[in-house]
Amino acid sequence: MAAWLALLLGSLGLHRMYLHGLGDRWAWAFPLPTAAGLLGVSRMDTLGQDDRLAGVLIPLLGLMITVSMLTAIVYALTPDEKWDARHNPGQAVTATGWGPVLAAIAGLLIGGAVMMGTIAYSGQKFFEWQLEQPAAQNSSRLSP
After folding, report:
1. Percent of the chain scored above 90 by pLDDT?
2. First CA to last CA across the chain, in angstroms?
3. What are 10-57's pLDDT values in tens digits?
4. Among 31, 36, 37, which residue's Cα sits nearest to residue 61?
5. How far is CA 43 from CA 30, 121, 134, 142, in A?
6. Cβ–Cβ under 8 Å, residues 59 and 122
7. Greater confidence, 134 or 19?
8. In which element (H, E) is residue 49 found?
9. Of 84, 110, 106, residue with least CA distance to 19
10. Which of 48, 9, 40, 42 shows the shortest CA–CA distance to 27?
11. Are 129 and 51 a contacting pair, CB within 8 Å?
12. Confidence label for 102 from pLDDT (cuts 50, 70 and 90)
């Protein structure tokens, strides 16, 4: 269940709330960067590709999705005995079956795609910014 929560709603920190309760400080660190990334997507949709703030905020969303996919993979690949010793002490070891394996596969596919997209987008924005700098300096030298 924790792996699937990390896969589906991990960027909001619900997997940590499920495991550690509402008092978990790390769980509350997830929603703000995710919301900021969604704000960046909304700004780009409204203002276009040239919005600098959107260019900074969108990679936050990619980072949060990538982190939640990595967490889903780690949760899914943790052996049942180790998981039960950590999260269900004193209870019998439960066999999980194929659910965590499918969650790990989905997490790897989604996480890899989002991570590569985030790296490509961030690299593109960086190089666009580098190209704008010399152009701005040249135009300031030419103006009286």
Report:
1. 67
2. 66
3. 999 999 999 999 999 999 999 999 999 999 999 999 998 888 899 999
4. 37
5. 20, 16, 27, 33
6. yes
7. 19
8. none
9. 84
10. 9
11. no
12. very high
